[in-house]
Please model this.
Amino acid sequence: QVRLVESGGGLVQAGGSLRLSCSASGPPESLISLQGWTWYRQTPGAQRVQIAYMSSRGTANLDDAVKDRFALSRDLGKNTVYLEMSNLKPDDTGIYYCNTFPPSDGLWGPGLQVTVSS
Model:
C-alpha cells in the first residue's frame, strides 16, 4: 500500500517562492507501478483542480495558470516529487494536495496550506 506524505507550504509574500514536497513510501512493487504523480490545488470557494502532473518517466505537465511560475522536479532515490513555486501571487493561496496518477481516493491527505500575502 502506497502512502504519501506532503510537506512544505506556509505563508509567503507576493513574489516569493515555496517548495512543496510529496514523498511516497510502501512496498517496492507498489512504488515501481506508480504511473505518475499529481498536484492539486483548492483555492477558497473553488473546487480542487489538478495543476501539475509528472509521469513515471519524469515528463512534466503544468496547468496554463502556473506553468510559467511553477516547476516539477523529483528525487527518485527519495521517492519524492517537488512542486517548486516562484513569483507567487495572492491568487495562488489555497490548499495544495499531492496524489498519484490516476488519483487514488485513499491517498488524499490533509493538504498543505499556502498563503500568499499582497
